[in-house]
Amino acid sequence: MTSSKSADFLLLAVFTVLVLAGPIILAPFGAGYPDLLQKFAIYGIFAIGFNILFGLTGYLSFGHAAFLGVGSYAAVWMFKLLSMNIVPAIVFAVIVGGLFSLLIGFISLRRSGIYFSILTLAFAQMSYNLAYSVLTPITNGETGLQITLDDPRVLDGGGAGQPFSNLFGLNMIDTVQTSVLGMNVQFNVGFYVCAAILIGCFYISMRLFRSPFGMMLKAVKSNQNRMSYTGLNTRPYTLAAFVISGMFAGLAGGLLAAMDPLAGAERMQWTASGEVVLMTILGGAGTLLGPVLGAGLIKYFENIFSAINEGVLMDFWSFLPETLQHLVVSVSSLFVGEGWHLTLGLIFMVIVTFLPGGLMEGAARLGRLVTNRGKGDKAAARAAAAPAE
Q1: 205 vs 98: CA distance, rounded Å
Q2: Are 273 and 132 in contact (CB under 8 A)?
Q3: What are the angstrom distances between the C-alpha of 73 and each of 69, 158, 259, 366, 383?
Q4: HSE on the CB side for 36, CA within 13 Å?
Q5: pTM to 2 decimals?
Q6: Are the C-beta atoms of 255 and 90 separated by less than 8 Å?
Q7: Which residues contact 230 (CB under 8 A, 6 or more apart)?
């Protein structure tokens, strides 16, 4: 037990250091700018929450984008009505996400397997269509819900200049630029707010995984029918996991609005739900770090690979002869820019085929390989040093 607690503390400490050092670590890869760093943290929270449901219980939801969307709408309404301080917005986003997930989970969890997945997808699509057309007085339809100068904002004086989201006076857009090891590094207030919340969510997820409640959810995933035969009602446990997961999604939606005070119906589309499924599977469902790694990988491809055009490729392959350069550029351009989904699809195919447990399984295999090789070298050294009989 003590060793397990020590391992968890070490994991949390390493995770904390890596997240807080994100602007420095990711700067050489072109991903050290605030907007992308915020997305890494926010979608990491989204994936951690989804993993609590899918990774622990095995229930695959295709409707989690609905909670992301309602969290964004709830946060923007708090900005419009109360204050540009992000605290009321985030709290209300979590509450609304939890209540909405309670409603959808109560109905959807009456079924399991593919029927559960289809039900959640149907609810998410209904939510998207309601936000896009029917509920336009609340959501502002296809234009999206935005902050305006004439919003009441009763707690901070309404239309007193251009509104910026803040945390007790610290604007989310405030950024300090400095040089670290010859690199231009940007330390952004918004990112560190998201990073602190990400670390907190990771800790909560770790405690859930290690708790008796988490063990019960793993038992549901292992064999729910056998648990039902013993007389145990598993629905309260799965519903609790669904609500917690929805609250994480609402939190992520609220943070998206906190970093950029805008909420649109596109955040509730089925593609957004599919994206968080990919994040979790790529990283490793049922693991602690996997969903965060998967979220980072997909957002990196979406924002970095999609920005690579033929001009960049021509410069990269400039050392080749001209004819060969044009040939290589014409082939490689299929996998970047607008074709970044092709690269992501190939990576997903390889990981699912050879690493069903995701990136974390690959890391575990690599760790075992290094450990076994080290043990083999030590054994060989001991054998060589032993005197002949």
Answers
A1: 16
A2: no
A3: 6, 19, 13, 43, 68
A4: 21
A5: 0.91
A6: yes
A7: none
223-234 pLDDT tens trace = 887 887 777 888
At 152, is the secondary structure helix, strand, or coil? coil
Q: Around 224, how many Cα atoms within 13 Å sit in the side-chain half-sphere? A: 17
Structure tokens given for 382: 């001991």
pLDDT tens digits along 261-279? 889 888 898 888 999 999 9
Distance CA 201, CA 226 (A): 32
Residue found by looking up tokens 């909670």 in the block: 67
Task: Report phi then psi at 265, rounded to 5.
Answer: -65, -20
Tokens of 226: 């056998």
The pLDDT of residue 66: 95
- pLDDT tens for 51-76 read 999 999 999 999 999 999 999 999 99
Helices and strands (H and E) in the chain: how many: 16, 6
Closest-CA residue to 96 (of 211, 219, 253, 235): 253
